[in-house]
User: Fold UDP-glucose 4-epimerase from Nibribacter ruber.
Amino acid sequence: MSKILVTGGAGYIGSHTVVELVNAGYTPIIVDNFSNSEERVLNGIAQILGQQVVCHKVDCTDAKVLQEVFTKEGDIAGVIHFAAFKAVGESVAEPLKYYHNNVAGLVTLLQVMEANKVTRLVFSSSCTVYGIPEKLPVTEETPTQKANSPYGNTKKIDEEILRDVATSGSALRTIALRYFNPIGAHESALIGELPLGVPNNLVPFITQTAAGLRDSLTVYGTDYDTPDGSCIRDYVHVVDLAKAHVAAIKRLEKEEPAAFEVFNVGTGQGSSVLEVVKAFEKATSKPFPYKTGPRRAGDVPAIYADVTKATEELGFKTSLSLEESLASSWAWQQALGK
Assistant:
């Protein structure tokens, strides 16, 4: 079974991808510094799979220790790189933290991969590279724009680095998955989104409010140029997203993959914040308090994906609905309270 190194593999998307890799016959090797995840996630993964997954507590900006992982594990067939900070608001307040971790971490990983002749990389990118798009839905040909936050800019810079490496004659083959808004949890409720401190993302804030851990949800901005005035996003179930990474690894295993490819990963359907609130109440029969507030720095009014390329070339399509995603998020929140 091929070994796939998964940086940030104990994180939200990483942990679900580790499960799907095993289900697809791969052997994932987790690398995580646990700066934004908890080691108990490893127990959830083990319970789902009925086996432990190897994990190295390593920071991707540390070349020496990262090299030790490659040496110890031996024949690594490919890497999925999740390890990055991702809070838009925090990146506005602490840009250097984001450039160091998200950009320097990728450069270090690429150098270690090159030294060990590992040539397959799936990169965790983001729809934030599109900035505020002029036309919706966005395709992979939609021009990338000046990022609306330092976080978004790190993803844009990372893609530029990968594109430059691809055109340099390097043997590296990369697929960048530009994904939209991951939500939901594994059907077992053994792993899910586990934000440390106050959540920066909508759905965990909803579930924590519904569970009584937060006084109320604030809907940031109700005066955007959208049907109900609140921001619109493309919410994709994390298990669907995890399966997209498996599809990308399989594509890289083909004899002559392109040096650098990008794919949107979303549902192709936009939902507003207020629609998500109503869908949660419908899916769970659990009303909760929310209020409106001013716009938040760094937020894009509306963005959702055209998923034609992923469907036709990657052979990937989402299968889980918004209501299913929200119901699984609530089951995960309830499991956390036990």
